[in-house]
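Quick one: co-fold with NAP.
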Amino acid sequence: MNTFQLGHLTVNRMGYGAMQLAGAHAFGQPKNRDEALAVLREAVESGVNHIDTSDFYGPHITNQLIREALHPYRDDLTIVTKVGALRGADASWLPAQSPQELETAVHDNLRNLGLDVLDVVNMRLMFDVMAPAEGDIEAHITKLAELQQRGLIRHIGLSNATSRQVQQARAITGIVCVQNQYNLVLRHDDALIDELAQQGIAYVPFFPLGGFSPLQSSILAEVAAELDATPMQTALAWLLQRAPNILLIPGTSTVAHLRQNLAASKLVLPEQAVQRLNSVITSV
Ligand SMILES: NC(=O)c1ccc[n+]([C@@H]2O[C@H](COP(=O)([O-])OP(=O)(O)OC[C@H]3O[C@@H](n4cnc5c(N)ncnc54)[C@H](OP(=O)(O)O)[C@@H]3O)[C@@H](O)[C@H]2O)c1
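Sure, here it is.
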């Protein structure tokens, strides 16, 4: 299965995460603006039809780059954004979770992406900025459901969420995806992934390559060399084989890395390689 349903939207399982297009730490202008635009155009020309973004990348800059590179958008392109944070002048990540702040964030995304309606909006929870933490999300999801009813949002997802929060949200409205941190060496969400698969909900790991600290593992390097692939390609292929509801949004600011990452969707890991990669978690 190379595609998955986000509500009524069909997306290829290999997508693209746009956060790395802004400056360092997703703040300010890109270090190479032409390359950033080229990455976006080549991604879509190569078959990517799922781009992950947020108006708080830059802030505003990543969405404006997407608009400049790709607007008017192809009919089959799904742009997934997220709300729930703002950036401080020092690049810090600040919670912005009140109903008014969520409404403002939706309008900021619409304006900077040049859209009348957002395909998917993830509610980025901030009870703990770094990891999922329990907390009541009724007010957050009720507000997004209202914006959905007003026709500004097609589908709703969650980010940095616990299993309990997914269930609370689902009691209010449909949830099509969950975006949490997960990769070969960080697997706290193993049970949640399987639970969501049963419910037909996509799991979209952020930092699939380790994010700001790229993955490093001797086992990963060995397996990759045996498969004549790069460690990053092998880590992405492992995620694709981990569960059918996993959608990938690896981020890069270069066309060269984009090409390598997209090629990972064709890399099939033999069972023995999967077993060795599964053991990485116990050896780090
Ligand atoms: N919901 C959330 O809270 C949240 C948080 C973080 C991110 N996200 C989303 O998740 C997406 C993915 O996360 P991410 O971009 O931060 O991290 P990532 O995909 O794990 O890794 C990106 C890092 O890996 C490098 N890289 C990419 N491809 C590579 C390759 N083939 N070989 C070597 N290095 C490579 C990139 O550098 P180069 O630019 O040099 O390639 C960048 O430093 C983001 O773009 C964003 O859309 C969501």
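If it helps, The first strand starts at residue 3 and ends at 6.
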